[in-house]
Input
Amino acid sequence: MLPTNQYPGKLIVVEGIDGSGKSTQIDLLTKWLRRQGRSVYFSEWNSSELVKSTTRLAKSEKLFTPTTFSLLQATDFADRWENRILPMLKAGVIVLADRYTFTAFARDVARGVDPAWVRNLYSFAARPDMALYFSVPLDVAVERILSARAKIKYYEAGMDLGLSDSKTTSFRLFQQRIVDEYDRMIHEFGFTVIDGTQTVQNQQKMVRQLVRKGLQGWEGLPNPAVVRRKSWRKKIEEVASTLNRRDEQ
Amino acid sequence: MKTIEFYGAGFPYHPVSELPGSLFVLEGTDGVGRSTQITLLRGWLEGEGYAVSDTGLNRSPLTQPGLDAAKSGHTLSRLTMSLFYATDFADRLENQIIPALKAGFTVLSDRYFYSTIARDVLRGADPDWVRSMYGFALKPTHVFYLRADLPHLLARTVHGAGFDYWESGMDIRCADNLYDSFVAYQTRMIEQFDRIAEEYQMTVIDANQPIDDVFEALRRAIRGLITQEGS
Output
């Protein structure tokens, strides 16, 4: 249901449950691409200012239903899509997203909303050029989260679903449902699956290989900080000519 | 409500089997006198012994503070506005309207999601996308479209709250001043509403008439419907 990315930039996203190691991997990837002199933009889930106060209120007062949770997250994402991601894609930048629409598809459906409904909700956003799914056994992910964090939050644990009175049990059950949804999406959206139990370096090696292959023969927006003077002029002229072509249309 | 139907999937995680109340919706552009009529209907229905609950747009405790802030700063785009209003509507539907219907109340809704569709589509939203988004919405017992023409709307606006930034469509700059923008925007809104009223089989009430006549028309229609529901 997501339209193909028609913009000059590249969109690469990572997905996976909490504790799957995806954030570590995308952080390393971002730094690697920057060091190569690429124009890179990094975007995180749940980070728009527009709905922040509403989300905070709803979380503290436990006001969310699965539908309102889903719609508010979509509002947040739409704001980020329009004001951050889309302009960067149009400019020819590599956009790296830590979680994308698939996080909503997995979590919201795990909460019981209709799968087709939530997919339609996000149909304004482009399908990524590459979606890397970090797959780990549930126990590994839960162990990582429980040992790293002092306290799991109410909605994070899926406590609103009434699966269990214990936060830890609820968290585990909720995450299992999310994993089931991700598994269903591997084929639907053509995820590239990365084995998240491998060492960080091995995973990163694989990620870089995939990205290198994906970017072959593609230039994107030049970065003024790294390009040498001669080739800089040539590259800027290329950008200028695409802009002119667009004006003529 | 005799039959419980949704426009799409509804709320799959929370199935409802019985809603003994009735849901009546008053739709129409700004200034057609919806809230006046709701006050009158409420008084009448309560006199008849019905428990009445009324609800309006952007009154949800979840989204009101956020919406007010976003509107005042004009930071809402067409897309985020669509989604934010849908959040508000879903909250009111799940937490106010459906519980009231469960408890057997007659619910009078000042607008439903139809107005939001009209407004979003005028701002360039994909009509199918917006309709699917409201797939969680419950089909009301009956919808009335209070239809007033532009001269009547103008008179009511001037003698009412005055020209408002949003109600004049200034966010999409229909014209460079409030008056011309209001005229252009509301003309297009009426066209949208006419189309939507047909699509959703609303009963059209001529809202150019005096308040008492509009009330009488509504009362007659609702009386018939309630007797049917109760039988």
Q: What stands out?
A: Chain A has a mean pLDDT of 91.
